[in-house]
Structures are given as C-alpha cells and as structure tokens.
Write a structure and sequence with these properties.
Number of strands: 27
Helix content: under 10%
Number of helices: 2
Oligomer: single chain
Structural class: mainly beta
Strand content: over 45%
Length: 396
C-alpha cells in the first residue's frame, strides 16, 4: 500500500513519464520549467515537472514522440486554469486535439483524456506556461500514464473511502458487544454534505443528513490492502416486497419492471458488460430531469451525472457548484460489474463490486421524479440479475 500511495506502483497502465530522470526526454523552450519547481504538493516518487509559481518566466516542454496504443492518457496535474496560457495538451499529427488545465491549486490531481479514437496515431505532449504572472500562473505535471482505464476524477492520488462529493467528516466505531453475529466489526458513518454549497441546499430545516452506516473491512489486491465498505446488513429489515428479474437484454432505453412509489429504494444489479456498449440507469426521472449512472467499458469508468437532477435551480451559485459529473475508474470482477444502489429522498449511495468503490452524492429531486430506466449504448448489455426493494421509513 505504501508503494502505491507514495510511488504509484500498481497503477493500471504503462508509465510514459514520471520525471525521476529529470527532463532528458523533453525538449525545453524558455526558462519556466524545471524538475521539482517549488510550491507543488502530492507528487509521486521524488520528482515532477513544473513551472514555478514564484517567477515571471514563460516556456514550454515538448515530449518525445510516441504512438498512441491505449484508450486513455492520464496525468497528475496542478496549477492555473488558463486554457491558452497554463495547460497540458496532446498534439496528434501536428494538430492540438486535447487541452486540459488545472483547477487553480498547487495540489496534483488525476486528470485524463479519452483517446480511444486516436489509437495508432503519432503524437506528443506539450506543457505550456505562457503566463508571466505569479497568481496561479504555473503548471505542474507528474506520472503521465498510458492506460485503458481513464483516471479523470480530478482528485489527489489516494485510496479514497468515497469518490462522491458528499461524504464528509467520517466517524468510525467498533462493536464490542457479546453479539458475535457482527463480531468486533468496524463501522463508519458520515455527513452527506459539502461545504461548497451546504448553506445553499434546498432544505427547510437542517443542512445535511447522515450517510448509511457501513461495515468496514480490509481486502488485499494488486495495490496492497484497500478498505471495502458495505451497508450494514440490518438495513435489510427496511425492505418491502422483492422485485427480481434475470437475464435481461438491454439495448437502447428500456423501463424496468421495478416501480417504487417514492424515492426511497434499493437496487442490487449484476451486469455483464460487452466490450464496447456503455450501460447505465436513468434514475429520478421526471419533469424533464434525471440522475444518470453510467459505466463505459472502453475506459472502465463510472460516471454519476447530476447536472440535471434537481428542481432547485433558482440559485445560480448553488447550480454552478452542484451540477457536475462525478467520475471514478472501476475494474470488472470476473467480467461482471455489481452496482448496489440506495436511493433516498435526496441522496444516492452506490457500492460498486462489493464495496471496493463507493460513490455518495446528494440529489434534491422533486417528489414527482420517480422514473427508472436502464440503457445500453452501442450494443446490447446483459443484466444477469436485478433486484429491487422499496424501503420503509425509519421514522415512526
């Protein structure tokens, strides 16, 4: 685990550049760039490339040429947000086809490009600093990785407990009771909120609520040990009547037979993705809005799209901060993907592949957004089993 967190060992893909040998594979223009320019944090290994945030110099780094052989190019990125002045870009056959900026911070975070349609073409990468100022007028890059898994989550390199934006201030405890059914398990619960917009959420009382309580465990994989989380089994006591379907073939958009009367339900689904067809669910459908959960097998990425899921659109600042897409890379388990979803009146929590990855987010739909559809884009996806339960309230 330490090697993964500190050095990046175990990442899926081929490291094109980690700057551990300096800039020997790069052409340098101007005086802006150096190895380990000051003011940047959360790099992997000992080195990264960057332009200093404390000088007024400009310049460019140009990589050695390469042929695109993977479906994604990932990199850790920090610095300014100037599209034309502080950026990293992909040049293919002499044309700039991808450009990415950082988020005005000195923290290196994973970004990436989907380059599936560019496989086989000749390319190089450029790091550009045309900005002579000192206020976030820099760029820093580390660990350029060629992979078939897109890492565009815009988060620091870490083993995240939750990839969603609304899982905060986690509290853990252990069970030391004599009841050995759950032994001395470790449990966790968090605040479902985000300080970026917590004071603007559409609630009449309170400014947030708690996540589902979870059971925590350690699992060994190629990265070392990782924390897995699953909802406490006692939640099964809230289940209503079971809906179950097996061996469904989804092509295009299709309503599923599970039709809860309120947004308080649980869906547990096992999918066998095909090589090219993206699959997912439109949840909270109604009044022209929906919450989209989508898996793309080409780049092994799950996206939770809440850009159009809430009827609270009167506050422009809230919408700007809230209406975003949340992404995370996910690997299949023996060719299948399990999505264990809990939808509540104003939130969703998704436990992926038996809790190896978790995504939690608030949603704030209207009470009339009750529709559920499955979809498969670009081919047919097989749903091996789908189970659904409406959940009873805990309030009496």
């Amino acid at each position: 685990m330490a090697d993964y967190l500190k050095e990046g060992k175990g990442l899926d893909g081929t490291v094109f550049e980690n700057f551990e040998k300096g800039l020997v594979n790069w052409k340098t223009e101007g005086a802006a760039f150096a190895v380990n320019a000051p003011g940047v944090v959360d790099h992997l290994g000992h080195s990264y490339a960057g332009s200093s945030s404390k000088t007024r110099s400009t310049g460019k780094l140009v990589s050695k040429p390469f042929k695109i052989t993977h479906r994604a190019i990932n990199f850790l990125l920090a610095g300014g947000k100037g599209v034309d002045s502080t950026c990293i870009r992909l040049v293919v056959d002499g044309k700039i086809l991808r450009t990415t900026t950082a988020d005005n911070s000195n923290v290196l975070k994973w970004n990436g490009w989907d380059v599936r349609e560019l496989i086989g073409r000749n390319a190089h990468i450029e790091l550009v600093d045309k900005h002579p100022g000192t206020d976030n007028a820099f760029i820093a890059v580390d660990h350029i990785l060629f992979s078939n898994k897109l890492m565009n989550q815009q988060l620091e390199h870490a083993q995240w407990l939750d990839y969603g934006p609304d899982y905060y201030a986690t509290r853990t405890w252990r069970n030391y009771d004599d009841n050995k059914n759950i032994a001395d398990s470790v449990f966790a619960i968090s605040w479902m909120g985000n300080w970026d917009y917590a004071n603007k959420v559409p609630t009449k009382w309170g400014k947030g609520f708690q996540s589902l309580p979870r059971v925590m465990a350690l699992k060994q994989n190629q990265k070392g040990y990782t924390v897995v989380q699953n909802p406490v089994p006692q939640l099964q006591h809230l289940r209503g009547k079971l809906y179950q379907a097996e061996n469904l073939k989804i092509n295009g958009f299709q309503r599923i037979g599970f039709t809860p009367s309120k947004n308080s339900y649980e869906i547990d689904v096992v999918i066998k993705p095909t090589e090219r067809a993206a699959f997912g669910f439109d949840l909270l459908e109604g009044e022209g809005r929906k919450l989209v959960l989508r898996y793309d097998p080409v780049t092994s990425i799950i996206t939770l799209d809440r850009t159009n899921c809430t009827d609270h659109v009167s506050d422009a600042d809230f919408t700007r901060l809230f209406a975003k897409k949340i992404t995370t890379p996910v690997s299949l388990q023996n060719g299948t993907l399990r999505l264990h979803m809990f939808i509540d009146q104003s939130s969703i929590e998704v436990f992926v592949n038996d809790g190896e990855t978790v995504i939690s987010a608030t949603t704030f739909p209207s009470e009339r957004q009750l529709g559920i559809s499955a979809f498969s884009e670009g081919g047919t996806t097989q749903v091996e089993v789908l189970k659904g339960w409406e959940l009873n309230t805990i309030w009496k």
